[in-house]
Design a protein that fits this description.
single chain; 301 residues; alpha/beta; Rossmann fold; seven-stranded parallel sheet; 10 helices; 13 strands; globular
Length: 301
């Protein structure tokens, strides 16, 4: 399979691309600078020549501004535009290329469980309605931006990622220093659900989805065992052999991080991977203790 990847240097892309190559697939990357061999130049805010997509069987779209930061109106606008405009640029070109050549026939894009908003203890599947708030709105627009490709006949899949666990970046990497010092603990009252997934299973889900021709539309990429925050910190402390008894009060989260902290740390999302499991995907790390043990060890992903 010939796969074109946007955001290939990011957390997921840097793990996915070598996995594709190891599986015998050809990969190329989208870049903004002058392209070298194995690269295709693009500007997410400008039209892309459909001819640049000829010959690719699938596109994996991962590019987008990191949501970690001070959520000013300017910052939120940049987050929204980076996802919506980039997706629309790629899918518009892909749709025209598909009409002319029949390729690319598959478009797999990252989305997020932020789509569901803050939902307490409600179990959330792909059929659950969207929630409220900035992240929910962005995810809806992000996914809607691919409608043109689906209308043209391309198989479109949006993978709604949970909190990706890896030492290489993301939330876990940010948490490790405090927990290694024995200063970690629950956030707020610790009752909020965390929908997590090991990076190895994120890569596995992308590979599975690319090859599974009957998977379409949104697919939750989360462990089948979401946990409450208090259980997460307890298991992380156990994996590190450190206590996890220093709570971060909700008022401090709101004071220090504002809307971002409210959405990323205090919101509760009990998401399950209904479509992936029904399609036959087998998680490498379905249990949190197992995942953290592997990740913290030298051999971990």
């Amino acid at each position: 399979m010939r796969v074109l990847i946007s955001g290939a240097s990011g957390l997921v892309g840097s793990a996915l691309r070598p996995a594709l190559v190891a599986g015998g697939h050809f990969t190329a990357t989208l870049v903004r600078r002058a392209p070298a061999a194995g690269e295709v130049q693009w500007n997410p805010a400008s039209a892309l020549d459909p001819k640049s997509l000829e010959g690719f069987d699938g596109i994996v779209h991962l590019a987008g501004k990191n949501i970690a930061g001070l959520w000013t109106e300017k910052f939120k606008r940049e987050v929204r535009e980076s996802r919506v405009q980039g997706t629309r640029t790629l899918t518009t070109a892909a749709a025209e290329s598909f009409r002319q050549t029949g390729k690319p026939s598959t478009f797999v894009a990252a989305s997020a469980v932020g789509y569901y908003g803050n939902r307490g203890d409600e179990e959330l599947t792909e059929n659950s309605p969207p929630g409220n708030g900035f992240l929910a709105e962005v995810c809806q627009e992000w996914e809607d931006a691919a409608e043109g490709a689906a209308a043209a006949g391309i198989r479109v899949v949006q993978l709604r990622l949970g909190t990706v666990l890896t030492k290489q970046g993301g939330a876990l990497r940010a948490m490790l220093p405090a927990f290694r010092l024995g200063l970690g603990g629950p956030v707020g009252n610790g009752s909020q659900y965390m929908s997590w997934v090991a990076l190895a299973d994120v890569v596995g889900a992308f590979l599975f989805t690319l090859m599974k021709g009957d998977l379409r539309a949104p697919v939750n990429v989360v462990s089948p065992r979401p946990v409450r925050n208090q259980e997460f910190v307890r298991e992380l402390g156990a994996a590190l052999r450190r206590p996890a008894m220093f709570p971060l009060p909700a008022f401090a989260v709101r004071l220090l991080m504002g809307e971002m902290g409210e959405s990323l740390l205090l919101a509760s999302q009990r998401v399950v991977p209904s479509k992936l499991e029904a399609a036959g995907y087998r998680f490498r790390y379905p249990e949190l203790a197992q995942a953290l043990g592997a990740i913290i060890s030298k051999a971990g992903p």
